[in-house]
Batch of 2 targets.
Target 1
Amino acid sequence: MKITYLGHGGLGIHVNGIDIIVDPFITANPKASNINIEELKADYILITHAHQDHILDVEAIAKRTGAKIVSNYEIVTHFGNLGLEGHPMNHGGKWQFDFGTVKYVNAIHTSSFPDGSYGGQPGGFVIETNDKNIYIAGDTALTFDMKLIPMQTKLDLAILPIGDNFTMGIDDAVIASDFVECHKVLGYHFDTFGYIEIDHTEAKNTFSEKGKELLLLDIGEHIEL
Ligand code: NI
Ligand code: MN
């Protein structure tokens, strides 16, 4: 499994020959000017919640690629009304796709569309494949619900927000990694705006002091699991 950081909450995942984009917020992110959305491959677009900083480039990428949108019912309906194909889910449900199984799991956050309309409830994704298993937390607070995940899934990577203010910060992300029983963490949702700037060295040290690894990728950089 190859995971590319697209900036903010955005990810590109390549697994089993399939390309998945998560929460693309690229064209309005000056830090992501090295990413050209016209060049992104997508068979699926996973969306955690309806906030602008997670859906901005969904329509453009889905229209060009024909990617199927996977998200909560309200978000899939919203994009369906724009003529885009989707697969609706809701919390606690899972579905077997051609690349693996996706479960839409709880997140504590909000989820209105940019115009204020209802975007359903926010979530995260647990993706299980015959290659690796990952948890994409989405925008969320630390929550005991995370303890449910390792009861069913042995994770190889937890992708957690670490920017604080709108989501968990570093200290809570360390606890979240305990809850999900995964000590390899990819941090995201940091540095994009003034409210969520972090000290990278301090963040990594906070994890390493607990015997954990925090990965911070440059935008456009990838890891192989
Ligand atoms: Ni949000
Ligand atoms: Mn956000």
Target 2
Amino acid sequence: MNERNTLKINQDGHLEIGGADAVSLAKQFGTPLYVFDEAYIRRMMGVYRDTILKKYDGNGLVLYASKAFSCQAIYRIADQENIGVDVVSGGELYTALQAGFPAEKIYMHGNNKLDYEIGEALDAKIGCIVADSYSEIDKIDAEAAKRGMVQTILLRINPGVEAHTHAFVQTATTDSKFGFSIANGTAEKITAYALTKKNVKLAGYHCHIGSQIFEKESFVIAVTKVMDFAAEMKEKLRFTMETLNLGGGFGIWYTDEDRKIPPEGYAEYLEALIGEVQRKAQEHDMQEPFLLIEPGRSIVGEAGVTLYTVGAIKEIPGVKKYVAIDGGMFDNPRYALYESKYTPILANRATEACTELVSIAGKCCESGDMIAVNVSLPKAQSGDILAILSTGAYNYSMAMNYNRNMIPPCVLVHEGKAEYIVRPQSYEDLNRNDVIPERLKK
Ligand code: LLP
């Protein structure tokens, strides 16, 4: 089966994740449960890091896009693997700093960073802020001046590449809340503006063309456009791009409609980007920029599996069979948001052949609360442990307490043993911030 991410079926016919039996994990920790395979995460971080080392003389840094999965342990792993991280909110920044992540390797994103987030980033002396508006540049400049410092920034620009992916996760087309367009001249204008600021050092550009993209071409075209633009800015504004951040977006396997790429295969994507950066640098007689990439999904996505217990089963003759689980859109809202597809496996009967088409329903009071629609499974029974594969990215990080369901805990498997990296929520946690005004008290 899925040998790419250390998933296998053991002698008991159970699904194993990173050497841990899924059925035992469900017993030990309960369900729903997010399970992460540490070895896979490290392998992915290592592939990107080593590619920059070997193919680009180490003149760059991998930033793990922590929006994909943020908790203190993942920042520890990123630190140990000698990579940087990107954060997109004060909360992610705080989590990284609490985990002891080195501030100089933190890059901050966001199309509308709040004043306090900019202040926190400056106070922490993070490596770089990726600016995305005029007002933000003004604020960074003013706050840096107050602190007697100069803050390094990149500008988010938009090469206008149409990536073949779900429209909701495209971020670089012309109509986007992110970035400044190369094509309509706004990227040039904001470059000139940033260069007038005393307490801001413009180091270069950032672009990100979208997510869950398999087409190498889309990434390469974006590099071509950004490098041509940088050459133009050198000519027109005498601005030298020292740093280039190419964002994330590499696709992963969710179902057999997707490409299966072994961890080492992702090196090819990065090599293609590097090749184009070098080709263009030579063509335009520019220095090769310090190179950043920001993969999120491809680092943690296939490293994660969610375990559920099957509950009610409801068959509507001639229509559908619903297999309900003890989780749902509160731990994985991706079907509700994007109609994302997933592959389920009965973890306790993993060798059994699939005999029916079912739809996996969550427990929320909402018809759209589904995890997967029309998927094949062996005949599921109440009490079976159902695993949904490739849930490591954008599941826990997008989880919520809808219906006052508790966000499941996360465990990290290391050499076959699992331990909590995010503890379970309790009913008390759900009520923690509630206040009953005096006049409503019983
Ligand atoms: N850099 C920037 C500036 C980004 O906006 C993103 C993702 C990344 C890096 C990481 O991209 P990745 O390598 O993970 O594709 N919630 C959606 C995904 C939203 C992606 C947002 N930006 C989902 O569940 O599919």
